[in-house]
Write a structure and sequence with these properties.
By secondary structure, this protein is of the alpha+beta class. It has four helices and 15 strands. A six-stranded antiparallel beta sheet has the order 7-6-8-13-14-15, with helices on both faces. Strands 1, 2, 4 and 5 form a four-stranded antiparallel beta sheet that branches. A three-stranded antiparallel beta sheet has the order 3-11-10, with no helix packed on it. The chain is globular, with a radius of gyration of 17 Å.
Length: about 260
Amino acid sequence: MIEILSPAEVDHARTTGRLVGDILHAIKARCQVGTNLLEIDQWAKEMIASAGATSCYVNYAPSFGSGPFGHYICTAVNDAVLHGMPRDYRLRDGDLLTLDLAVKKDGIAADAAISFIIGNTHDPEDVAMIAATEQALAAAIAIAGPGVRLGDLSHTIGQVLSGAGYLINMEFGGHGIGSTMHQDPHVANDGRPGRGYKLRPGLLLALEPWVMNDTDRLITDPDDGWTLRSATGARTAHSEHTIAITEGGAEILTIPASTSAVSSS
């Protein structure tokens, strides 16, 4: 089932989206060499609770995971890219960290992810990979709007990622979001233009381009049963925003309150 939100529900989504953006960027500002991933999880817990919101992850238990996730934020380091379970690990200079956060407030969820490098050592390949996911996300948002097909978004993302030289995994991608975190429709990170569901005002989508540096194959961490890593040990990057389809285009919901709202038409 694809959920179409009312104008009042989209207003709630704006509030939740700003919260997600604020938390992610507040945590990013605090991350440094020596920060423990478990500290990041605690920060997220405290910020979510102080906002009167709830985590979408603590009791999250889909078929592909090993029991409830049990944490408040996903922390993926280096070869980890999705569902990174916080663990007792202190960040090192040059680590590539992805933070992925989904919360629910006033009955509506929002989901976003950012990738960035810790410390002063910035490998040019890491910088380029992060940029490719950000560019793919921006390109898809730029064309989103009423009447656009899901395949158009997927094709746009895929063109940017493959054009930058990356292989594309089709198992995990973007998704609908609203009263729950993961909903139909699935938004693959590559596809054929002109195909699929036609976007409508009130639809919320979490678009999330992600890549691995030299493979399209994932493995699940055997220790936690959750963290998805590149099969080759290659580094990874992931960028995500929740958007609302509007009458005139698309509105990015998951940017910090300090940043002006961005729309495309």
